[in-house]
Amino acid sequence: MTRFSAWSVFKAGLSGQKNWDRQWRDPEPRPEYDVVIVGAGLHGLATAYYLGKNHGAKNIAVLEKGWLGGGNAGRNTTIIRSNYMMPGNRQFYEHSLKLWENLSHDLNYNVMFSQRAHVSLFHSPAARDAAARRYNLMRLTGSDGEFWDLARLKKEIPHLNYNHARFPIIGAAVQPRAGNARHDAVAWGYARGADRQGVDIIQNCEVTGMEREGGKVVSLQTSRGSIGVKKVGLAVAGNSSRLWQMAGLGRLPIETHLLQAFVSEPIKPMLDQVVVYGVGGAHFYISQSDKGGMVFGGDLDWYKSYAQRGNLPLVQDVSECTTAILPCLSRVRLLRHWAGLMDMSMDGSPFICKTPLGNLYLNAGWNYGGFKATPASGWYFADLIANDRPDPTIGHFDLNRFSRGANIDERGAGPDPKLHG
């Protein structure tokens, strides 16, 4: 495989960029693997990559029922931040952000990570005080954060609705190191890196059953035949409950909901930050892609579904949120919208943990945090699988925390999965 460099790109340009090697193989499945990761999305590919890079694991496969990165990996708004404050979440997402900062160099692949700042608007003194608590804790634990008063906010983002907003803007909490990345480039970079570690990435290979013996999974039944396994990691996002039941483990404390996202027609550069607000029942976030489209979204569809398509009430709701805060976009045309499957846990925080089966490991319950968590999720899930014990950082992310009363409720929204957006 060619290692990318300025020289390699220049050299390939002399031949019209026609002589590049294939970036990852398309192998046939072997009869047995030491580790099988189910799900070739961002978390599954990152796990396989770090299993090889950090732990020297060999004989690994990633199984994907469709095509690489074709699930939630391509159905999100690509926001990256670490402005969490709960124990466990605080350390985990900060580690993830630090991995993002060097990810392109680590993978030798440009994931287009842009640290353009995450700007959370507030509309009342109470909201400002709540944000102060969170951002002071971030700064005390080695992260970055700052407050912009109204004058600074107007200077940085002059075209917000300052004069006629239903909920007047009084300032913002800002994480300057936050930003976004290109989701498909992240998937391709991790796939390329995993393949370089010898991982078999097997597409169009749906897991249809699991054979158990002696409290362990001994083989996976797939659309491409039976595959023997020594260890299995599940990283299947909104389909976690389905695979959990396939393993004969009953019900997970997860609900699957839709989260719609939208992109407009390309326009001239106008927004160099990620802007977020939530007030009066509204929840909204927006940024501008490198192609010029405005990428935005809002709340979940509150009913449970695996449909991966949205509905018109949320289109209307998010459109109203858009024009409320950025009236200048009112005549911009919507290019497309889509829905991802969100596995919403009871407290809004994830699971990276062992399961009742001795060789089955779970990565699930990411709520709104899946994309930004990608590097750290792969890092710690690989560590869990390799060493058969959780790192202290993810010690809180287990299935038993609810029975202990140790909820990790970042929003204080209570045990309702729909409210943890």
What's a quick, concise take on this entry?
The protein is an alpha/beta fold and 421 residues long.
Please describe what this structure looks like.
There is one protein chain. This protein is of the alpha/beta class and 421 residues long. The protein has 11 helices and 18 strands. Strands 1, 2, 8, 9, 10, 11, 17 and 18 form an 8-stranded mixed beta sheet that branches. An 8-stranded mixed beta sheet has the order 5-6-4-13-14-15-12-16, with helices on both faces. Strand 17 and strand 18 form a beta hairpin. Helix 3 crosses helix 10. The chain starts with 5 loop residues before the first helix and ends in a 17-residue tail after the last helix. The model has no long low-confidence stretch (mean pLDDT 94).
Structural class: alpha/beta
Measured between the Cα atoms of the first and last residue, the distance is: 41 Å
Count the strands?
18
Main beta-sheet annotation: 8 strands, mixed
Give the number of helices.
Answer: 11
Please tell me how large the radius of gyration is: 22 Å
Query: What would the principal axes of the Cα set say about the shape?
Result: globular
User: What order do the SSEs take from the amino end to the carboxyl end, as H and E?
Assistant: HEHEEHHEHEHEEHEEEEHEEEEHEEEHH
| Residue runs with pLDDT of under 50 for 5 or more positions | none
Helix content: 25-40%
Strand portion, in percent? 25-35%
Q: Give the rounded overall mean pLDDT.
A: 94
